[in-house]
Design a protein that fits this description.
Layout: H1 5-17, H2 38-52, H3 67-77
Length: 81
């Protein structure tokens, strides 16, 4: 079964920051649209790392500008077995 990382990332961000799920879109900018700081992003990444048993190196955090960027990383790097 394929995992919908995009949907999961949106749900986790919404739950973590008390946002409405429909307000968190794949194209939402983390800092400007959702007011997610770098420190907040680390919390989200930690949740995703545990959930999907994937390591997300700090060196790629700066590439996560939109919600979809995080999902794209998971599609490329997480094991969907």
């Amino acid at each position: 079964m394929l995992i919908d990382y995009s949907e999961d990332v949106r749900k986790i961000i919404a739950a973590q920051f008390g946002l409405e799920e429909e307000d968190v879109e794949e194209e939402s900018l983390l800092d400007e649209d959702l007011n997610i700081s770098e420190l907040d992003l680390e919390d989200v990444i930690s949740i995703l790392e545990q959930k999907y048993e994937v390591e997300i190196p700090q060196s790629v955090y700066s590439k996560f500008l939109k919600v979809g960027d995080i999902a794209a990383f998971l599609y490329e790097n997480a094991d969907q077995a």
